[in-house]
Amino acid sequence: MRKKIVAGNWKMNKNMQETEALLSEVSAKLPDTSATVMVSPTFVNLASAVNQLEDSTIEVIAQNMHFAESGAYTGEISADMLLNIGINTVILGHSERRAYFGETDEILEKKVKAALAKNMTVMFCFGEELADRKSDNHFSVVESQLKNALFGLDASAWSSIILAYEPVWAIGTGETASPEQAQEMHAFVRKTIATAFDQTIADNVSILYGGSVKPSNAEEIFSKPDVDGGLIGGAALVADDFIAIVKAI
Ligand code: PGA
């Protein structure tokens, strides 16, 4: 079911003590909200984050996982390992995973299927690079990212998918897509899903925007009809900024 979500992607930031301190501050300052609030610390701090937030409504999610069940994959983490410590949602397809760790659409499709097979929720990230937008290919790039990794799924899988549109040129750059650019792409994504599956699925999927969301621009971006929330990087590392973004929704 479509819902409002604000998720903090902490990336490779915050050690154990810093994680604990930031989570304490965020949960103490969390306003009453009907939105789902999620945080994603690094793998080594996930289990302690789950314990720390046991009595909180804040959900702890993972930044990545491997598609295999187990085995000789040095440095990797499986779905079962995440589930075992109480993590039910995983971010897949982040542009940094695609750009720096060679994650292709093909690998991502395997990861999505592996997570869904374990009844996990997938937050699937996609988005065009600057060159794609400049050459007016942003819609076709996004369409093929979605098609290659998600359109082979059964219709029933969509209740376990959250989408996050993150134009690569807006991530960590301070440059945000305008609320109109975000709305235009989100509407396009919904239309593409309606064509590939059906209108109900398209209407029910939550589509987050990510890329330099901050307290000063969150409200305007979130006010757009097809934007259901945000995936927040840099601003999620400062409790007051993250809380201000939660309030904006
Ligand atoms: P940013 O990162 O908010 O720092 O641009 C967003 C993301 O990569 O998820």
From TrEMBL:
EC number of the protein: 5.3.1.1
Main location: cytoplasm
Cross-referenced InterPro entries: Aldolase_TIM, TIM_sf, TrioseP_Isoase_bac/euk, Triosephosphate_isomerase, Triosephosphate_isomerase_AS
Keyword flag Isomerase: yes
Cytoplasm is among the record's keywords: yes
Residues annotated as the enzyme's active site: 94, 166
Pathway: Carbohydrate biosynthesis; gluconeogenesis; Carbohydrate degradation; glycolysis; D-glyceraldehyde 3-phosphate from glycerone phosphate: step 1/1
Protein family according to the UniProt entry: Belongs to the triosephosphate isomerase family.
Role of this protein: Involved in the gluconeogenesis. Catalyzes stereospecifically the conversion of dihydroxyacetone phosphate (DHAP) to D-glyceraldehyde-3-phosphate (G3P).
HAMAP family registered for this protein in UniProt: TIM_B
Name of the protein in question: Triosephosphate isomerase
